[in-house]
């Protein structure tokens, strides 16, 4: 019997197997077209992983010059809600995923009527909205920051909000890389910040004393099996991820293990199928608080391409195709450095330049990933470097050298 004809793995009792109810057979590697909504770098790395498995990939992305579209076998240039393009994807693709969380959930619903879609529209909708996301954390028994919804002028002026101050006012949807956020110290600042954000639905979060930031990437298959990547320690600069280190150098093993337990609990509670990243704060007192989750591979998991035997993108391919999940193994300690568009400009001015790639590629254990974006802009994610070594001390030392050679700050 070929893999295409093999029966779907049976689900453990009581586990919801997702939109297709577990009824869909696994896809045979090497056969068929997988679809992805979105054309960014996450989609590009998904395309690469899917092609390694022998699948062809179709990308739906309006931008003609997208990182994923350039790598894909088929690029549909249309908006994510274009009925003709969705019809074409549904006709051609054996399964469809997404690479960004702000994809219209309705598009996923349309496709799910025709083929397996993971993650589901329901799960993506939860992650698209900070208040819904926090409700999902609470329902799963995962602690999150004290917070309140601010959706009306009355709510923005509620005296009880004082208990959450100093805090951060965040737009409920469409925020990323620290955008759509304002620090607020008193009630007047809450009202002003809410008005300055155009009166859109927001969440006010208490500012917590962070010791570290970590993330856990989990993958759940249609059969309910859950696997995870090792705990990642993340450093942000200006609200944007700058450095990820694995193993997490400063996080006690028990704290990391607890984060993994919470991420598993969350993905099970959501009956989620696909790859999910959960970001956590480790507070000064050592306790864990979930910050947010992303219904897709995550920037903090890029190191897994070079440092694990199964990467986060391989996991996305496997969950989408209904293929078996095995626990990924970290075979090398790794440090990932994000390469933002700022590197393409002279220090302190706007003269375009090319980063000194030979200087970093001459270091042992460095792998350069560039996303093929034509235009560099400050703050734009253009690529990343993964540094691996036989031990964590060497990986870190080499990554520090690479950072210095590119003019990036030490960490
Ligand atoms: P992403 O690009 O990860 O989607 P985002 O724009 O959605 O980011 P958050 O993850 O909510 O933003 O916040 C960005 C960063 O701001 C966090 O990684 C953390 O450093 C800091 N931060 C956010 N919320 C809090 C909080 N409640 N207390 C302290 N620091 C916070
Ligand atoms: Mg974040």
Give an account of the 3D structure.
46% of the residues are buried. The strands form 3 sheets. Strands 9, 10, 11, 12, 13, 14, 15, 16 and 17 form a 9-stranded antiparallel β-sheet that branches. A 4-stranded parallel β-sheet has the order 3-2-1-4, with helices on both faces. The protein has 411 residues and is α+β, with helices and mostly antiparallel strands. It starts with 32 loop residues before the first strand and ends in a 5-residue tail after the last helix. It has 13 helices and 17 strands. It binds adenosine-5'-triphosphate and magnesium ion.
Structural features:
binds adenosine-5'-triphosphate, 13 helices, disordered N terminus, binds magnesium ion, 411 residues, Rossmann fold, 9-stranded antiparallel beta sheet, D-amino Acid Aminotransferase, Chain A, domain 1, 3 domains, alpha+beta, 4-stranded parallel beta sheet, Dna Ligase, domain 1
Number of H/I helices: 13
CATH superfamily of the largest domain: ATP-grasp fold, B domain
CATH architecture of the largest domain: 2-Layer Sandwich
Number of DSSP E strands: 17
Bound small molecules, by name, code or SMILES, are: adenosine-5'-triphosphate, magnesium ion
| Low-pLDDT residue spans | 1-22
Q: For this structure, what is the CATH class of the largest domain?
A: Alpha Beta
Order of helices and strands: EHEHEHEHHHEHEEHEEEEEHEEHHEHEEH
Profile the largest sheet: 9 strands, antiparallel
Structural class, from secondary structure content?
A: alpha+beta
What proportion of the residues is helical, as a percent range? 25-40%
* Overall pLDDT score: 93
Round the Cα radius of gyration to an integer and report it.
21 Å
Globular, elongated, flat, extended or rod-shaped: what is the shape? globular
Distance between the termini: 53 Å
- State which percent range the strand residues make up: 15-25%
Number of domains: 3
